[in-house]
């Protein structure tokens, strides 16, 4: 399976970006899909996920600002990011997991995209 992200870039604080992840293979309909991010010098951290039943989870730091969604016709998931803050600056990774994905889940079984840079200037 392949995960290919797009949509990163540079934005001012308070602005918005939408990330996309094209998912190949049958995992789109079977796996939990979501987003993690990694800032310089930090561990990769959970951002948001969506189960194949449509259950959504968010990190506390992005609740109310970020929205995860999917387009089944295009095998694509999205991360709409509003009211961006400088602390949101990171490389964002699309992720797929055959098990539950969430803020406290292990990532031993997670597959990753190549990552896309999001930079928020103050």
Q: What's the arrangement of secondary structure elements?
A:
Layout: E1 3-6, E2 9-12, E3 17-23, H1 27-30, E4 32-38, E5 45-50, E6 56-58, E7 66-71, E8 76-81, E9 90-97, E10 111-112, E11 116-121
Parallel strand pairs: 2-11
Antiparallel strand pairs: 1-3, 3-8, 4-5, 4-9, 5-6, 7-8, 9-10, 9-11
Polypeptide structure, described:
With 122 residues, the chain is mainly β. It has one helix at residues 27-30, and strands at residues 3-6, 9-12, 17-23, 32-38, 45-50, 56-58, 66-71, 76-81, 90-97, 111-112, 116-121. The protein has 1 helix and 11 strands. Strands 2, 4, 5, 6, 9, 10 and 11 form a 7-stranded mixed sheet that branches. A 4-stranded antiparallel sheet has the order 1-3-8-7, with no helix packed on it. A hairpin with a 5-residue loop joins strand 5 and strand 6 (56-58). The chain is globular, with a radius of gyration of 13 Å.
State the main characteristics:
mainly beta, 7-stranded mixed sheet, 4-stranded antiparallel sheet, 3% helix, globular
Radius of gyration: 13 Å
What's the order of the H and E elements?
EEEHEEEEEEEE
- Output the structural class: mainly beta
Helical region count?
A: 1
Low-confidence stretches: none
Beta percentage is over 45%
Termini separation: 37 Å
The shape is: globular
Residue-averaged pLDDT: 95
Number of beta-strand segments: 11
Oligomer: single chain
Main sheet, how many strands, which sense, barrel? 7 strands, mixed
What proportion of the residues is helical, as a percent range?
under 10%
């Amino acid at each position: 399976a392949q995960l290919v992200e797009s949509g990163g870039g540079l934005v001012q604080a308070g602005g918005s970006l939408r990330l996309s992840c094209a998912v190949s293979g049958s995992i789109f309909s079977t796996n939990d899909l979501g987003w993690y991010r990694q800032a310089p010098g930090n561990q990769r951290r959970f951002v948001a996920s969506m189960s194949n039943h449509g259950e959504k989870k968010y990190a506390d730091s992005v609740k109310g600002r970020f929205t995860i969604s999917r387009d089944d016709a295009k095998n694509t998931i999205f991360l709409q990011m509003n009211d961006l803050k400088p602390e949101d600056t990171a490389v964002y990774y699309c992720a797929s997991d055959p098990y539950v994905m969430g803020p406290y889940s292990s990532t031993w079984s997670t597959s990753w995209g190549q990552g896309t840079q999001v930079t928020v200037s103050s």
